[in-house]
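1st attempt posting a full record on here, be nice pls
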Amino acid sequence: MKIRINLEEREKETLNPYATLSMNSKGRSKEEDLCDIRPVFQRDRDRILYSKSFRRLKDKTQVFLTPDGDHYRTRMTHSLEVAQNARTIARALRLNEDLSEAIALGHDLGHTPFGHAGERALNDVCPDGFRHNEQSLRLVEYLEKDGQGLNLTWEVKNGILNHEMSLMPATLEGKIVRLSDKIAYIHHDMDDAIRGGILTEEDVPQAIRDVAGKTSANWLNTFIHDIVENSYDKNDIQMSAEVFDAMMNLRKFMFERVYTNPVAKGEEGKAVELVKTLYDYYLKNVDLIPRYLTRRMDIGDSKEKVVCDYVSSMTDRFAIARYEDLFIPKSWSVY
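the predicted structure (as tokens):
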């Protein structure tokens, strides 16, 4: 079958000269036969989507810890919204949509339970620190599929590792995800904050609204259009200075009014202590950690790193359940 070859040729004929072509991938750490149907980045996208790590994102906090409502975002819906933003931009710029989507779906796989509160907790107690982007890469390289890893392409792994604003991916598609991540969480975290009664769109400073628009839907539209307009036919992904400043000021506003808001974050102190307590417990009882993780110690990883792997992989619900099983007394009765 020549389906994959035909798709690769179509990419070559139709994509932007600056796009990352599937046929030009730097490849995988472990060589494997190519798929008859799917180009390499589409295959990576599928591997991430079917992974256990991705499924766990449905029960990991985005911003609001255990919210009372069905429509607040989770780490999974965040990843899906990042992927949608990235595909929209990549398609408009004639870049590789499959590569952008794969990076977007995989960028937060390494996030802890309880969102950034859990990340801060593990960063405090792990000797080597903890950064979710590095953990996302570790998951796809070594931990997924019971320790086999997903064997993703170099380009997808590079984009996952470098999606933070302080870093820079090697491909234009990775750069799209780097901005799409910020656009997505500014948009949906504002939406959730409005739903939670923490603020209103009118609370946003007028200087930001004058540039980005009056509503969260306007902001999403403005940011995406600005990227497309300022990156079209260029070997870079960029925004105009005015709109970029508005986006970063809106992000700063969100940190001041939402991400550190005592109403939204009132339970985070408990979450931090819970994560640290679980870490300490498993450090003393490492034999209770699944063998596919402890095998990493046989090849040189520290016990602390393996405990970090285990605790960071937990969902909110599982972490709470383990804590209750281990530390909360149960009622005693005779039947």
